[in-house]
């Protein structure tokens, strides 16, 4: 079947637009990395690299729909592949270093009182605790399954779980990114999100690094790996 010329042109333009949207330069990746990885979502005073070193033992609170549990498993599998971190579910809260709450704002405030001043405007939150060396050793997060539904829950789950790993800040740069500040229903990692996770948990990215050191390390890692490999799914 012959395809009219104007349809060929339309397909070509769409392909080019899609390709452009998924292509990032080394400089753009480094700039985005330091913007998202240095500081925290509320307050940016501690602009150093923070990440986990030990196994993440997570405990689930609430009674989430099986669809949301399946999504949690999917996100964890992706994070394991991108970071090398190990995740293990534990049945008792006292054995966990990460608590994931599927419930209401009040449910979360019960275990994380400092969340109270943020929950009115946030359907999801996280709090990570780290030591003076930049090692995250404990965290909590919640998804409000009463106010959020469907893909909203899935988006919040992915965003908060990713951010508590050390990519703590939001940004206005890329609409396709899980870290985009305005509300979206993104439920997949953009290529640049995968790049940031790989950079943060690369062995050559020093824990507790300041912006200058983080930039240098990120640039060197990209040169070694190549942009395409860093962005790959």
Which helices and strands, and how do they pair?
Layout: H1 5-21, H2 26-37, E1 51-52, E2 56-62, H3 66-83, E3 87-89, E4 98-103, H4 105-111, E5 124-130, E6 135-144, H5 151-163, H6 191-200, H7 211-225, H8 227-231
Parallel strand pairs: 1-6, 2-3, 2-4, 4-6
Antiparallel strand pairs: 5-6
Helix pairs in contact: 2-6, 2-7, 3-5
Features of the shown structure:
233 residues; alpha/beta; disordered N terminus; DUF2927 domain-containing protein; DUF2927
How would you describe the overall organization of this protein?
This protein has helices at residues 5-21, 26-37, 66-83, 105-111, 151-163, 191-200, 211-225, 227-231, and strands spanning 51-52, 56-62, 87-89, 98-103, 124-130, 135-144. It is globular and about 45 Å long. The longest helix has 18 residues, at 66-83. The protein is of the alpha/beta class and 233 residues long. Helix 2 packs across helix 7 (211-225). The chain has a single domain (25-231), classed as Collagenase (Catalytic Domain), CATH 3.40.390.10. Residues 1-21 have low confidence and may be disordered. Strands 1, 2, 3, 4, 5 and 6 form a 6-stranded mixed sheet that branches.
Q: Count the strands?
A: 6
Distance between the termini: 34 Å
Helix-strand makeup class: alpha/beta
- What's the number of helices? 8
Task: Determine the oligomeric state from the structure.
Answer: single chain
CA radius of gyration is 19 Å
Spans of 5+ residues with little confidence (pLDDT < 50)?
Answer: 1-21
Would you state the CATH class? Answer: Alpha Beta
CATH H-level superfamily title: Collagenase (Catalytic Domain)
CATH names the topology as Collagenase (Catalytic Domain)
Sheet having the most strands = 6 strands, mixed
